[in-house]
């Protein structure tokens, strides 16, 4: 029974630590966002959406390049 109690206490301590770490990360992100000129979460979400749109464009361009067959890889190991 003593081992069970110790296990529960350790697990509770781990959960408490993780919750505290999560809270600190969220507070830090809020401060960073406010310092960057994004006062509300709506603006933050819109900035994330804009970044994802840009990333999707880049991925689409990369995919079209790969599908075109113009990509050649030279490892330098080929023997002549």
Describe the structure using short key phrases.
80 residues, mainly alpha, 2 domains
Account of the 3D structure:
The structure is a single chain. This protein has 80 residues and is mainly alpha-helical. The protein folds into two domains: 1-37; 39-69. It is built from two helices and no strands. 0% of the residues are buried.
Topology:
Elements: H1 2-35, H2 41-68
Secondary-structure-derived class? mainly alpha
Count, helices: 2
The rounded distance between the terminal residues' Cα atoms is 72 Å
Q: Which spans have pLDDT < 50 for at least 5 consecutive residues?
A: none
The tally of domains stands at: 2
Average pLDDT metric: 84
Helix and strand succession?
Answer: HH
Radius of gyration: 24 Å
* Count of beta strands: 0
Largest sheet at a glance? none
Quick summary:
The chain is mainly α and 80 residues long. The chain folds into 2 domains: 1-37; 39-69. The chain contains 2 helices and no strands.
């Amino acid at each position: 029974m003593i081992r069970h109690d110790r296990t529960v206490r350790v697990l509770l301590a781990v959960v408490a630590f993780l919750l505290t770490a999560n809270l600190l990360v969220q507070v830090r992100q809020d401060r960073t966002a406010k310092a960057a000129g994004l006062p509300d979460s709506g603006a933050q979400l819109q900035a994330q959406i804009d970044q994802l749109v840009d990333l999707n464009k880049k991925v689409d361009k990369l995919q079209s390049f790969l599908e075109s067959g113009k990509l050649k890889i030279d490892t330098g190991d080929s023997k002549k």
